[in-house]
Design brief:
Layout lengths: L4 H12 L1 H22 L2 H25 L2 E6 L3 E3 L3 E10 L5 E8 L16 E9 L4 E9 L4 E5 L3 E4 L8 E4 L5 E6 L13 E2 L15 E9 L11 H7 L3 E7 L1 E2 L2 E4 L15 H19 L3 E4 L13 H13 L14 H8 L8 E4 L2 H5 L4 H10 L3 E7 L21 E4 L5 H5 L2
Parallel strand pairs: 2-10, 15-16, 15-17, 17-18, 18-19
Antiparallel strand pairs: 1-3, 3-6, 4-5, 4-8, 7-10, 8-9, 11-14, 12-13
Helix pairs in contact: 1-2, 2-3, 5-6, 7-9
Length: 428
Amino acid sequence: MPLPAAASAFLDRIQAWPRLRLTVLILLTLMAYVAALNHGQALLWGMASLFLAALLTGLAWPRWLLYRLAISRKLPRRAAEDEAIELEIQVRNLGRLPRYLIEVADRLPFVGAANGALPQEPVLLGQLGSLGGGQEARFTLQVRAEKRGRYSIGPVQLQSAFPLGLTQISRTSAASLASLIVYPSLFAITALPLKGCPRLIHRGERALPHGAGSSEYRSLREYRPGDPPRHIHWPSSARSNRLMVREFEPLAAAALGIALDCHPGGQAGEGRRSTFEIMVKVAASLARFACEQGLPLRLLGAGHGPEQERQSGDAHFQLILETLAQVDMLAETAAAPAPDYAASLLAQAADAEPGETLVVFPAAALARGEAILPALMQLQAQGLNLLAVVFDLPSFGGPATAPLDLAALDIPCYRLGRDDDPGDVFNR
């Protein structure tokens, strides 16, 4: 005979909520003892004793199960977005008697962070059916680093509600507290429309492909490992019976600056598909391109950290990655309004190297009503080369803005919508 819907729902609540199960068992125990005192029947006393034994067992047994158990956890200190992180868990039974049905949980705030909010509740990693006295159990599992950031991990904990599920007891390991930094994901960039700065002979602009930076012929010299094969002068090599290469005066040198817009207004989208997160991803990929090309690079935060000096090399790229992993939008208040992106660009341009290419993100500033186009024109007048990354704000759920006529200013532009792959856009 099926149970009524109300009774079935009540039983489901009892199974789902340990506190409710404990309350019900306490009430049953009290009712059984009251009935036994009133009627004095042996059966009622037996039922009351049974309920009391179940109550004491359900409260004390989980505590004993966790007694003399030790747990440790290993995980990497760095990862990238979407990377699978391997966790290694070790549980040791320091007692002589076996333990049963032990759960392992850990606080991993990056799990589920792709949608924006950082989960605070521990994540159940696994369950040990039994662990004999003096034995240890090891298991590994992989979790995905869903969103960039610096996270406080742990503590890892053991928990048990066996055998009756009346209460869940947990024990944590303070030694398992750790820190994890998740870098923004990267996409490959094969080329950028960078322009250099004339340094020695000519005046004017020159686009610099990888390995360029030479213009005026200077002399011939003997070939050295690493010289470009296209610079070999074959007639001289044939006459001297050794490889000779042409040497040039350096004419142009490119530098790259990335100016982030950390203003809270005008940003659109949620989680990893927001304009701010995609901007950080683009900045990290541009930084890797600059590192691979050996270009001096600086990162500007539009008046709000991060701000790095102009340098190059792998160490500088690593520093920029760590900065980008943690950068966030300004917390704007009435007493401390966020600075305008346009005004910040003009202030930061004072330290620009002549001919430097500055990457700007003007769409959100335009949506806020800032005078971004006059600022870009002034930057060009100061000798900076500009490269714009423009977001299609309506596709992210943001406000519609007047179209930016950057072609009239001779500013190369990459346009990104919510569903666009940045790698495809930058490598068309």
